[in-house]
Design a protein that fits this description.
It holds the Pfam family Glycos_transf_1. This is Glycosyl transferase family 1 domain-containing protein. GO terms for molecular function: glycosyltransferase activity. This protein is an alpha/beta fold. Strands 3-4-2-1-5-6-7-8 form an eight-stranded mixed beta sheet. A six-stranded parallel beta sheet has the order 11-10-9-12-13-14, sandwiched between helices. It folds into two domains: about 180 residues, Rossmann fold (3-Layer(aba) Sandwich), CATH 3.40.50.2000; about 160 residues, Glycogen Phosphorylase B (Rossmann fold), CATH 3.40.50.
Length: about 375
């Protein structure tokens, strides 16, 4: 089986990155696995005996996409591939559909969510999704959406939750002030991890902390991650005078110390495909409060393995946070429930088998006209 992957993840071009190591594992499932990535520089990198990665070259995003198309077309002319796969339902998916149709091979879309689903992107997604030969998604929630909103046949869909390791390397990170440690000051620490972008709605957490801290001044919210929303969030913290309650730590490669020091985990996204950070938090025995997105309803069931609140509902979030602060037994019950639920997720070998199964589905079908 020969796989051609059009990817937006430029970190694959760094052979030492997690993404590159993950691609090598995918390559072990196939006879060959070739990746083309839009990038300003043209590159050819051999990651393993089976895996090659090409950077497209191009001065801007438009030329990079054009060069991705040209590079993929050239590769398809040179040798016979069985499947084109792409983690996108927008521009790269459209390019992939044209190529799959022209060269009569299967098209697999990997769908992790519908962030930025509006305008031209919506028009393209409405076109590409029903025409895929196979779709790999990360949750039952997404599967239902694909069937109900896009008319995708159930047999085309494979559910493969994002695999997360259950252990992390010990972090060497040192907090600026070790007195922040909950064991020394008895702080109740809420942790959130992720990109600081609008869809993650970290703003909701900050507003909730502003209210909860009035009754529980020993709480602290730790935000690990970075992104374009950071300055806005820092300004809001200043305006609310929450500098003693909310701390930013930027991107961190090793998260063990953050998870091990926290008392509870927050995820308040407006939209989420699955929520790998939730799985990581659960692996550290943290009770989870999250909005009704991604793995909510599957891994995190309300009152059984976590607390699930409506999207953007600040009052419900505040109530959930207060319950978690006050009730030791509830925290233990939810953490144990989540750890039990996580055992039902596919392990690494099972996850890889699901990936291969989806490719095989794509091979059996051609993109619809």
């Amino acid at each position: 089986m020969k796989i051609l992957n059009l990817s937006l993840d430029k970190s694959i071009l760094d052979r030492n990155s997690k993404a590159a190591r993950r691609i090598v594992e995918y390559g072990d499932l196939a006879d060959s696995y070739i990746v083309v990535v839009p990038d300003k520089d043209y590159k050819e990198i051999r990651l393993s005996e089976k895996v090659f990665v090409y950077g497209s070259g191009g001065n801007n995003k438009i030329f990079q996409l054009i060069n991705v198309y040209r590079a993929a077309k050239k590769l398809l002319k040179q040798e016979k591939f069985d499947v084109i796969t792409v983690q996108d339902q927008y521009y790269l998916a459209l390019i992939s559909w044209f190529l799959a149709k022209k060269f009569k091979i299967g098209l697999e879309l990997q769908i992790h969510g519908f962030e930025k689903y509006s305008g031209l992107r919506k028009i393209i997604a409405d076109f590409t999704i029903p025409r895929a030969s196979a779709i790999k998604c990360v949750s039952q929630r997404l599967k239902k959406q694909l069937i109900n909103e896009f008319g995708v046949k159930e047999e085309k869909i494979t559910i493969a939750p994002v695999f997360a390791k259950t252990q992390f390397p010990i972090s060497n990170f040192q907090f600026p002030n070790k007195s922040q440690n909950k064991n020394q000051e008895n702080k109740f620490i809420f942790l959130t991890v992720g990109r600081l972008v609008a869809v993650k709605n970290i703003n909701l957490q900050i507003r909730a902390v502003a209210e909860v801290a009035k009754k529980y001044p020993n709480i602290e919210l730790r935000i690990v991650g970075d992104g374009p929303e950071r300055k806005k969030l820092e300004l809001k913290i200043k305006n609310y005078k929450l500098q003693n309650y909310v701390k930013f730590f930027g991107w961190q490669n090793n998260l063990e110390e953050f998870y091990s020091q926290a008392n509870a985990f927050l995820l308040t996204s407006d939209s989420e495909g699955w929520g790998m950070v939730v799985v990581e938090a659960v692996n550290y025995g943290l009770p989870v409060i999250m909005t009704d997105v991604g793995c909510a309803g599957e891994l995190i069931e309300n009152e059984k393995s976590g607390l699930v609140v409506p999207v953007s509902n600040q009052i419900k979030l505040e109530k959930a946070m207060i319950r978690i602060i006050n009730d030791d037994n509830l925290r233990k019950k939810l953490a144990e429930g989540a750890l039990s639920a996580i055992k039902n997720l596919p392990n690494k070998e099972e996850t890889m088998a699901l990936y291969k199964q989806s490719w095989e589905k794509a091979m059996k079908n051609k993109p619809n006209r």
